[in-house]
Amino acid sequence: MTILDVRSRDVLEQVPKGVCDELGLRQAHELTGGGTPAQVYRCEDADGNVVVVKLLRAGAGAGAGTVDGHDLGSFLRKPAQIARIHRELPGLSPHYVPLVGQWQGRDWGAYAMPWIDGVSPVTLLHGGEGGGQQFLAALQSVFGVLGTHGYAASAMPAPPGHGISTHLDRLTRRLPLLTRHLGRLVDEVDLRVNGRAVPSARELLRRTAARADVLAAIEPTQLYYPVHGDLNLGNLMLGTDGGPGRDLGPRFTVVDPRGIDEHWDPVYDAAKALFSLTLFDAAMAGGFEIGRDARGYQVRLRCPVQAYNTAAAQVPATLMTVEFFRHLGHTDPLWLRRLLYAHAFHVLAEAACRLSDQTVRTFPGASGWAARRELALGLYLSGLLLLDDLLSGPSDPESDPAAHLACLTTVDGSAAASSSPS
Ligand SMILES: Nc1ncnc2c1ncn2[C@@H]1O[C@H](COP(=O)(O)OP(=O)(O)O)[C@@H](O)[C@H]1O
Ligand SMILES: [Mg+2]
Fold it and tell me: What pLDDT is stored for residue 54 in this prediction?
């Protein structure tokens, strides 16, 4: 499921003419592995050289409503962030996708990169015995490089309220979009999900805002160099045949930064990586099974991957072995708790992103808009479970992350039937 999806139809006509002419493109095939309304094309020129062109047209996704971050302005900042990293961070540059060109039209933007021969790190988790250890070792190496050569390049005190605006305000901004498409559910008070009574997102936001101890954990003490900002594991490509960075440690290449130029909380990136394992990758591949009866909602990933769950529970301990995060513990002792809260907020916020992403997906029984709604609803219900578990559980959930994450697979108080291996 993590091997690139490349559509077979040649869609060169979708690539703006100026881009085709400048790069001498002869064919273009769409890559469907991403998660935003942008189109990503694997293109070839007359000599068979391969480049990847990423294109966003203003208004893509606007039918359902566009979330912040899926707009053209944010898109245009992505190549700027890539260029800045190559200029300013010599240690990280070999691990970051290079830019071949960038273009801006009246209502579109595009940039081109070399083709990176690589796979998402989760591919290791499909490798059978030993895959889990290899995956965690890769994750440790990647964050080791990002930490030492990236985040640590500069730091500044976090402005007061940074965590609230990043997590709580973002979800508040997205509630109207969720309400428009998920209806009353967003405000429903007597909701049961997998046998557990959960408050609505609005109520969870209110409870979060009322908890001084939680707000303290959500606030980073420092912000660091803007290395990425959207580090789901699909945006990391492990080299398969000697990609960039070969002699510099782990062979990996970072693609698709958020498009930020301000300092950032590295824990946000780590939480995105965790979210890839707990829900995002398996949801994008297979969707959710969602039922509703007198007992409330039942939600589960349609194609869960046990190895992802096992790895997810070990992410916090793995990060603690990374020098950057070990040091972070001295100045920001609650960062691991923030990781779990940031993860729960990502899940809820991502529910809205699924409504704004126009990529056509097909799951058993749902495709197109219905598949997008299925993803949004599945993530929304899962996010309620996670945030409610944090707010109503022990005050130090980071001491047993596995117990917290198990709330996703617990049905009527006991663990769900064991999931398929792949
Ligand atoms: N330069 C590249 N070389 C090879 N594959 C790429 C390249 N850029 C992107 N991809 C693949 O396409 C997917 C989608 O691209 P991405 O830029 O992440 O789009 P999105 O914004 O939709 O997430 C990536 O997850 C990766 O698998
Ligand atoms: Mg991406």
Answer: 97
